Amino acid sequence: MTSNIAESINAALVSARELPIYDFLEEVRKMFGRWNCSNRKEATQTYTTLGKKYQEMLTLNEEMSTRMTVVPLTEYLYTVNDGGRNYTACLLERKYVCGRFQVDELPCPHAWAVLKSKFLMPEEYCSNYYKPNTIVMTYDLSVYPLPDRNDWNIPEHVAEEVVLPPKWKIPPGRPKKKRNKTLSELMQPKN
Q1: To 10 degrees, the CA torsion angle through 32, 35, 38, 39?
Q2: In what order do the strands lie in the sheet containing 77-82?
Q3: Residue 56 main-chain phi, psi, to 5 deg
Q4: How far apart are CA 125 and CA 105, in angstroms?
Q5: Which residues lie across from 89 on neighbouring strands?
Q6: What is the pLDDT tens value at each position of the chain, 191 positions in all?
Q7: Are 69 and 80 a contacting pair, CB within 8 Å?
Q8: What span, in angstroms and rounded, lies between the C-alpha atoms of 32 and 9?
Q9: Where is this region: Disordered (predicted)?
Q10: Of all helices (H) and strands (E), which one includes residue 26?
Q11: What DSSP letter does each residue of 95-120 carry, written as one string?
């Protein structure tokens, strides 16, 4: 949730940035095609009720829930004691005070403790987005290659346009790989 997808894609395309635009776009297409193919393959070969990554997260949450005690308040409302701290869990509304279930839609350790005490299946409390069928449908999109340059339909007014090089000169020395930060970025406190 906290990683920036644009930064991840930029990091994966460092070597492709030096290419002409057509070749760059072809590299981007190949990268997304590889990612879609590998993710789709992994999802189709998953025989658990959740995708591999999410099943591992659920197992980790189960391990963390073993030290917690559950006290029922009503039929759907429970208090979970986790190392001296109390958390409230509502099974009916699927809300937990820690807030992780509302964000992840995957039973957090506190929810796991309640579900175990009620002998309920945690997979029923997981979002459909984590199930293999949904993951396969997500990556079912094909990434088609760009058409050959000979097949392009370029309007005449675009083909006749002359593109001149920039008016400034490139300074001597090795070109910088990093961008110059704006003043607002420099003024922000570092965390």
Answers
A1: -110
A2: 69-72, 77-82, 85-90, 95-96
A3: -65, -40
A4: 8
A5: 78, 96
A6: 456 788 888 888 888 888 988 889 999 999 988 988 888 888 888 888 888 888 888 888 888 888 888 888 888 888 888 888 888 888 888 777 777 778 888 888 888 888 888 888 888 888 888 888 888 888 888 888 888 888 888 899 998 999 888 888 777 888 777 777 888 877 887 76
A7: yes
A8: 10
A9: 169-191
A10: helix 21-44
A11: EETT-HHHHH-S--HHHHHHHHHTT-
> Which residue type is seen at 53?
K
Long-range contacts of 125-134 (CB under 8 A, 24+ apart): 125/94, 125/101, 126/49, 126/50, 126/54, 126/58, 129/105, 130/50, 130/51, 130/54, 130/105, 130/106, 131/49, 131/50, 131/51, 132/43, 132/44, 132/46, 132/48, 132/50, 132/51
Is 16:27 a contact under the CB 8 Å cutoff? yes
- Tokens for 6? 């644009």
- Over residues 17-69, the pLDDT tens digits come to 889 888 899 999 999 889 888 888 888 888 888 888 888 888 888 888 888 88
